Every structure is written in C-alpha cells, then in structure tokens.
Amino acid sequence: MNEIVSLTLHELGQRLRARELSAEEAARAYLARIAETEGKVHAYLSVLEKEALEAARAADRRLKAGENGSPLLGVPVAVKDLLCMEGTRTTCGSRILGGFTAPYDATAVALLKKAGAVILGKLNMDEFAMGSSTERSAFGPTRNPWNLEATPGGSSGGSAAAVAARSAAATLGSDTGGSIRQPAACCGVVGMKPTYGRVSRYGLIAFASSLDQIGPFARTVRDCAIVLAAVSGHDPRDSTSADEPVPGYAEDLDAGVKGMRIGIPREYFVEGTDPEVEAAVRAAIRVMEGLGARAEEVSLPHTEYALPVYYILAPAEASSNLARYDGVRYGLREEGESEYGPLFGMYAASREAGFGEEVKRRIMLGTYALSSGYYDAYYTKAQRVRTLVSRDFQAAFRKADVILSATAPTAAFRLGERMADPLSMYLSDILTIPCNLAGLPGISVPCGLTSARLPIGLQIVGRPFGEREVLRAAAAFEGATAHHRALPPL
After folding, report:
1. Whole-angstrom Cα distance, residue 48 to residue 398?
2. Could you give all domains of the chain from N- to C-terminal order, each with its CATH number?
3. What is the pLDDT of residues 92-116, one digit of tens each?
4. What values do phi and psi take at 406, rounded to 5?
5. Catalytic residue positions?
6. Which residues contact residue 148 at a Cβ distance below 8 angstroms, ignoring those fewer than 6 apart?
7. Is-above-0.70 flag for pTM?
8. Most buried of the four, 8, 91, 297, 368, by CB within 10 Å?
C-alpha cells in the first residue's frame, strides 16, 4: 500500500500544507488505490479521475500561493451517490435515475469544494438509502474489506468500505436510521450522524425528510471532526437547517472525560446481541471509567417501539418523496398500457422497471399508512410515540452527558444472509434508530474485533447540538485504545 494512503486525513493535510507532497501526488496515489481495490470491494459507482486531478492541481496552486487555512485543502475524499454534484451522474443506487446528471452541487458538496477537498468519486449505497447491507444497490453489492464475503453494512456501505480500504481519506454518507453508524461499525471506521439540522440537506436526494442527515466517515475521531466542521452550518436553502453556531469540533478533543457522566441504557443490551459485541462494549465502559468518567445506568423505556415507529414514519415519507419519479421529467422512462390510459401505463411501467424490491415494499407500506382510514391509526400514532422516544432521551440526559451502547447487535453478517428476511435486516438498526427519531448526534468508533476478526462498533450519543461532547468522549476512548489502528487484510 502506498505510504500516502496510509496517512490519516489530519496527517495528510499537515504534509500538504508543509509542501512535503503535492495534492496531485495524493490524488494519484488514491486513484491508484481505487484501481487496486475496486475489483474486490466495489465501493464506487463512479470514479471522477479527470475532475479529481483538475481539483488537485487547483489545490496545489492555492497551496503554492500560501493558502493553508483549510485542513481539507488538497485532501482526496468521496461522497455517497445520493448527494448531487454538478455535472456528474447521480443514481441514488437506483435504475429509476438512469441517465440523470446533477445540475447543481449539494450544499455539503459545495462546502467540501470550498474547503479545497479533492472529490474522487461517488459511492455505492442501498437504493434510495433503504437497506442495511448495500446489497440493495441496483449496481451490485459492496463488499467488506475485512471479509469480502461479508456485508459492509448500509445504506452507506460504499462510504464506509472506501475509508476501510484506504481508497478515500474520508467520505460523506447519510443516516436515516443508522446508515452512517452501522456501516462504520461493520467496517471498523469512525462514522458520525450529526444533530438533525446541523448539516444542510439541500441537494441530498430524500428518503425520509424528517430523519435524513448527512455526516462523515473517517479513520480517526479527529479526521471525522475536521470533515464535520467543514460541512456544518446554516443554509437558507434548507428549511430544516438550524441557525446554530458551528464550534471548532477539533479544538478540545484532548480535554478528556474526567467527571463526564456516561449513561448506559439498560434497554440497549437486547436479546440477540452477540456475546462478543456485548463483551467489547462492557470493556469499553470500563476503559471510560478508568479515564475518570462516571458510568450510570439509565432507562429509555420506549425503545421497544422505536423500530415499528420508524417503519411507519420512514416509509410514509418515502412514499411521498419518491412519488416524483414518474418517468416524465428525468430518469428512466418505460412505455406501458393501463386501463386508465397510456399516461398511467407509462407511470406504472417506469416505476416497476426502475425501483427495486425493497423500495417498492417501503412505498407500499408508506402509502398504506397514509391512506384514508389508516392515517390516524398508524401515522399519527407513530408521531406521538416518536415524541415519547424523544422525551426518554431528554430524561436520560438529566443524569448523563452522553449515552454509550453497541452500535449494532452483531458484527457484519454474510452477504445474502438476510436478503430473504426483511425483518432480520431491519433489526440491524435497532440500536441506531432511536437516535434518528429524536434527532440527536451519534458516533460509532471501533471498540474491538470478534473471534472471526470482524470489527465491533461503540455508539456514543449526545444531546441536540452536543457534537463536541460526543467527539470528545469518542476521542478519549480512541486515545486510550488501539482498536482504530487495526487494518483489514485487503
């Protein structure tokens, strides 16, 4: 492996600003790594070699002119293929967007470009972010660099796998019910879901608008903090964007956790949790106590309802958001016949050919939940229970500064293992979904390996806009352990 791709984002940025290597050298090293690994991993849906090299040369000109304020200047990154990037194919992992070229940049992409990051390409994902294994991509699954027969998690599996495979220094993904944290855990990298509203969703192709949030993947907590700071901030083009100041996330990472109160939710040590996962999380709690934190059990009593609530609300929002894909304005168009005429025939044929099985399942679930006679029984009641889940966290944060648990109840499972059992697949996100329902920030950091040498993730959840405390706790754990230094065999 080239030495350049072995550097963390922070280390690479320092080398670039010191002019010890050029941005073009870094971009070429990563493009070579992509060529070396993609035949096995399939993390990328498109590699933007020409654009990346042009951006790298532009970064070199900025560096040569003495500009060194941005820690991302000249650093090669990649983004999940549901973020619009002007002039590039943007598929959302679906055939329905076949031939679609984004006419503008998502705000998060524009902020990366402004910071001088070099975008290497667009990353694979479960179709419309609906999945936990990246097997639902219309363009084939991504494989886990730790074990090529295992899933990388999902839906941001390409984003997690690219960081683990060292084919990007950092990436952006999205998290609707765990789609950053769960694949980060499966691939042994750091992944953070910010507070809802912290990062603009403008230019993010929507799945569930009240739940979707963009966030970073990286190798270390510091790297994650650097990327998060770059893409955070208020955006008037997103009506849900929070007008909150963005602190320097990397500034107090070394402050430690002495005196910090850590909540351990009794409901998160669920039946079905792999004993090796639980043992690793219990060991992580002891590490935090050894660093001076105070661990205390807390209760989140409505946790058991989070999964069914999510699978009413998210499909309902998906049913509405995905109604725009009708074969008329952009994307796939198929002609068909219908008893209601050729227009309806075209709608039906385009959606039948363009959407995959899981997307169709969730559209139907959501449409049913929103239909006349069932709206109050399902959707309205789910919204009320969502409020109870949020209040559980509010009560827990009176006793705790952050909450610790496993990120997922098991390590990465084998490709194909859960494809025929949707409920089993949905349970992969049982520990991450409550955080989305409440709109809270959460991070996954590596906390061990199973006996089969598959990564285990530790989840740390904070108060709304409490990213600094979450990152500080994660950095303290990372600094006291060596789990993040473990390398996949790829």
Report:
1. 48
2. 3-249 (3.90.1300.10), 304-384 (no CATH)
3. 999 999 889 999 999 999 999 999 9
4. -65, 150
5. 80, 155, 179
6. 40, 41, 490
7. yes
8. 91
